Amino acid sequence: MTNGRARVSPREWASAGQAGGGVTQATTLIELDRVSRWYGAHRALHDVTLTLAPGRVGLLGPNGAGKSTLLKILLGLVPPSSGSGRVLGRDLASAGMLLRRAIGYMPETDALVPGLRGSEYVALAGELYGMPRRQAQRRAHEVLSYLELEDARYRKLDEYSTGMKQRLKLAQALVHDPPVLLLDEPTSGLDPAGREAMLRLLLALGNDHGKSMLLSTHLLGDVERVCDTVVILHHGQVLRHGGVAELRTTRQDRYRLQIQGDPNAFLEDLRLEGVRVIQDNGRGELRVAVPAGWVSRAFFTLADNNGVLLRGLRQDDEDLEELFHRVLAENGPAPV
Amino acid sequence: MGVHLLNYRPWRGEFKEPSASVWPIARVGLRMMFRFWPFWVIYGLGLMIFLLFFFGQYLLAWAETQTAETDVRVGGFGSADPRVLIGVLRNILKLNGSGETYRNFLWYQGYIVMVVLALAGAMLVGNDVRHGSMPFYLAKPLSRWHYVLGKCLAVAVFINMMTTLPALALFVQYGLLDSWDYFLDHARLFFGILGYGAVLTVTFSVLLVATATWLKRTVPMIMTWATMFLFPRLVAPLLVDGLHFDARWRLIDLWNDTYLLGNWCLGIDLEQIRPSPQPAFAEAAAVVVILCAVCLTYLLRRVRAFDIVK
Predict the structure, then answer these.
(1) Which residues contact A34 (CB under 8 A, 6 or more apart)?
(2) Would you call A127 and B20 a contact, using CB atoms and an 8 Å cutoff?
(3) Buried b (16+ CB within 10 A) or exposed e, B229-255
(4) Distance from CA of B119 to the nearest CA of A (A)
(5) Best CA proximity match to B149, nearest among A326, A305, B157
(6) Contact B272, B127 (CB under 8 A)
(7) Which of B103-117, B150-164, B230-244, B296-310 is predicted with the least confidence, judged by mean pLDDT?
(8) Chain A residues with beta carbon closer than 8 angstroms to that of B31
């Protein structure tokens, strides 16, 4: 069977994708076993092995990391070239259409149907998911009200602002009440207030309504805010995978120092102790990464030994963004 | 934007089969076409052709009841000899309930259909490609076949609204004006009209969807559509009638090919078709089938799944 062509019973069709249809009870959201995908000679994914529990998962990676290919595979649009996998217990290679019924996909691009009005667009999405027409229409109004678009629901899509379009795209992904949301850059193009509101909404959907979601983004703040698990992809491979909190424990401790006096000997001593200078503005302000087990008292000792006055010292931890870039830097260029 | 958590309600219901999504796609396409005002202007022109045939048949039926008179008044248009009127309506305008009546009607309506399709094609299909709507459709639980079928169905509904349905209305009208025996004696015409309509529907829906997917915008669409249908229409007679090339050169004229198939459906002999000579029906059918196959292949390659997530 190729993607989307699996033979399924009408009963299976009817219940696929319903939150009550057994999918939320699944203990595993995504299971990938050595999944690779080739486009001609180009390898987009390489032996990706992942097991993700239901929850809010952030998918991070620079352009060309393989995020889009992974999304396509998870949506059942493209079969893996090798390896196997399951989403909500359904086989990736054979259950394409069933998978798409269980997933609400919010694309990054506008993906609007010009000429339609907001409520028509969302109702159409519902019908395309397989909902009966009247129920799709009723549900469209409910979801639009939930997302505070009730005043704009009869407006043409061309008249929607960027923020409204983002919410509308979320509405069309939510209309059939899927257990899983697949969100591609949901805060793209939003102003700070809109972004904050969208993130609160996603958190609410996850926390209060039990929606699992895979958030593909390059905005680490979004992942840090919403997700409890993060997967970092680079050159088609999983570089890091784990809880956001757990990943934070692997971060490097960093400090900001303010010194007075000749810094050269002091810096040399720091390097000998394994401290990495990340930033030096030349005016006595330093940002350093310390090795594991470092005690801050050592800064004072080294400063004292080198005749430098340590005027300021404060911890400045690595955030997810820095962690992401460090992990990328440490892993170097793609394997050929 | 606030979050109204209490307003979110889960949905519990049964999903329909993926094939059920074909009609919503078609319905949205038709709705967009109906919201396009030039559509109604051109549709009005098509309606005038229908009314011309409709009242022509009515006039014939009335004139046949007036043969005892030598001179009858025709509305406010003056007077005429009923026998002359009958001759004109029956033999020149062919409003005689024969296959030629419906063929001529479908032929004239074909012009209107062409113009509307050229104008609305880009809006119906090209917009999905141009405005990035493909991810919206194809990330849903339906295959590319369902999408293509939905779009073709929208075009098919429109073509049949303009051709098959009015032609069937003329058929019913003629039978009611003539006698019930007409329906029995000319049952083949009923199926012939359906057949001609099916030829137009399949050919032009597939061709339009493929062309619009390729060109996306209205102006190139109109130019290409005109080139496809007007240029061969001018060249083919020049080659066959002017330069006495083989009649098969008429096959380059797709409009003529569908016309030949329509004639075959309505049981009209090849020798009766003007201009003469014409290529064989089977050859015209082969051209149409090959063209449809090429268009479908292109469509399926174009509407590929990996266009969805960029």
Answers:
(1) A47, A48, A49, A82, A83, A84
(2) yes
(3) beebeeebbebbeeeeeebbbbbbbbb
(4) 15
(5) B157
(6) no
(7) B296-310
(8) 115-116, 120
Q: What share of chain A is helix, strand, coil (3-state, %, to 5)?
A: 40, 25, 35
Distance from CA of A270 to the nearest CA of B (A): 46
A17 touches chain B (CB under 8 A): yes
Nearest CA distance, A238 vs chain B (angstrom): 20
Find out whether B119 and B204 touch, Cβ atoms under 8 Å: no
Containing B59, the helix (H) or strand (E) segment is helix B37-64
Q: Do B14 and A129 touch (CB under 8 A)?
A: no
Q: Which residues contact B152 (CB under 8 A, 6 or more apart)?
A: B205, B206, B209
Chain position carrying tokens 């073709």: B152
Q: Distance from CA of residue B209 to its chain's centroid? A: 14
Q: Residue B91 has which token pair?
A: 């033999």
Are B109 and B162 contacting, i.e. CB atoms less than 8 angstroms apart? yes
Cα B6 → chain centroid: 51
Q: Tens digit of pLDDT for each residue in A272-296? A: 999 988 888 888 899 888 888 888 8
Q: Which residues of B touch A209 (CB under 8 A)?
A: 5, 8, 10
- Are B17 and A13 inside 8 Å of each other by CB? yes
Q: How far from the centroid of its chain's Cα atoms is residue B102's Cα?
A: 13
- Please give the pLDDT value at position B295: 93
Task: Pull the structure tokens for residue B225.
Answer: 């559509």
Condensed to tens digits (0 to 9), the pLDDT of residues B219-277 reads: 888 889 888 888 999 999 999 999 999 999 999 999 999 999 999 999 999 988 988 89
pTM (2 d.p.) = 0.80
Determine the pLDDT at residue B138.
85
Token duo for residue B18:
């993926």
How high is the pLDDT of residue A6?
46
Residues in A 57-116 with any Cβ partner in B closer than 8 A: 68, 71-72, 75, 77-78, 97-98, 100-101, 105, 107-116
Per residue in A174-188, pLDDT (tens digit) is: 999 999 999 998 998
Give this complex's ipTM.
0.81
Residues of A in contact with B16 (CB under 8 A): 13, 130-132
List Cβ neighbours of B60 (8 Å cut-off, separation of 6 or more).
B85, B86, B89, B90, B95, B96, B177
CB-based contact (8 Å) between A176 and chain B?
Answer: yes
Which residue in the set B11, B132, B137 is minimally distant from A139, CB to CB? B11
Q: Give, as one character, the DSSP assignment of residue B272.
A: G
Residue in chain A closest to B132 (alpha carbons) equals A111
**pLDDT tens digits, residue range A47-72?**
999 999 999 999 988 888 888 889 88
Terminus-to-terminus CA distance in chain A, angstroms? Answer: 31
Determine the distance from the C-alpha atom of residue A103 to the mean position of all C-alpha atoms in its chain, rounded to a whole number: 16
The DSSP letter of residue B7 is: G
Question: Higher confidence at residue A303 or residue B127?
Answer: A303
- Which strands sit side by side in the sheet containing A30-39, from one edge to the other? A42-52, A30-39, A82-87, A90-91
Residue matched to tokens 């998870």: A74
Beta bridge partners of A213: A56, A181
Residue partners of B267: CB distance under 8 A and separation at least 6 = B99, B188, B189, B192
